[in-house]
Amino acid sequence: MKAVPALMAAVVLLAASFHVAAQPKGKAAAPAQAESPAGVDLKRAEQIVAARCSLCHGNEGESASPVFPRLAGQHPEYIAKQLDDFQSGRRKGTMNDQAKDLTADEMRALGVFFGRKKPLAYTVRDEDLAAVGRYIYHKGNSYSGVAACASCHGPKGDGTIQLPRLAGQHAVYLESQLKEFDKRERTNDNAVMHAIASKLTELETRAVALYVSGMK
Ligand code: HEC
Ligand code: HEC
After folding, report:
1. Strands, E, within 62-209: which ranges?
2. Is residue 82 lining ligand 1, measured as CB closer than 6 Å?
3. Which of 29, 101, 187, 199 has the fewest CB atoms in 10 Å of its CB?
């Protein structure tokens, strides 16, 4: 039990550092609307998406099936990092094959391409369950040592350059990732998400995934 306050402190510290580092003031804060960054070949990204990615993630990154994560509105840096991790095998799954022949420039362009697409959100029907999720998301669970998701992913779930946007993501995908973090099956994870996911109950996991899928 003694370890819990220490861990909480560590998580809070981490949360604080993510927060500070990730809130650039000024131009860098709105990459989605900005001009195409120099050296980013959006035409090339469009070709790759049409030929391959759209099959699962859709042309607009909307990912119609809940097992394929939505990429629309996701941070370009996060997308590029995940592609690199899939290529090197640090993160394992269906995507290893998809990422194997992408160049670093293509990964970056794909990130910018999807990052500019309009994010979608779900209409949540089970409001009671979503209310449990809302509590966890914004306040965490101080009884079991779960940090508030909002402290890192932001009060609106829109993430930062260093961490993923969650708002509007498929609940099924969110839940599967939380379970993978818990079991350390998401191999490119960080200690933070493992520590959090391992303390969530089944109900909390479901509830927070449902709530987040409805965030705009
Ligand atoms: C056959 C289906 C399929 C195709 C084609 C596909 N993906 Fe994926 N993608 C997935 C699945 C499934 C995941 C979830 C992670 C996993 O289980 O491997 C994923 C995850 C991702 C992620 C991580 C998202 C996150 O929130 O962490 C990115 C980025 C991504 N894909 C980009 C791409 C790009 C770019 C292409 C085209 C080059 C592509 N994908 C093609 C199925 C696919
Ligand atoms: C201390 C900071 C921190 C807190 C608090 C935090 N997260 Fe995360 N989360 C991260 C980071 C960093 C990543 C990116 C991991 C990576 O790069 O693979 C992440 C990734 C995720 C992902 C994977 C997203 C994707 O697209 O694949 C999900 C889902 C997630 N977090 C949910 C949550 C939930 C739910 C909570 C609250 C119960 C939470 N996080 C609290 C830092 C945090």
Report:
1. none
2. yes
3. 101
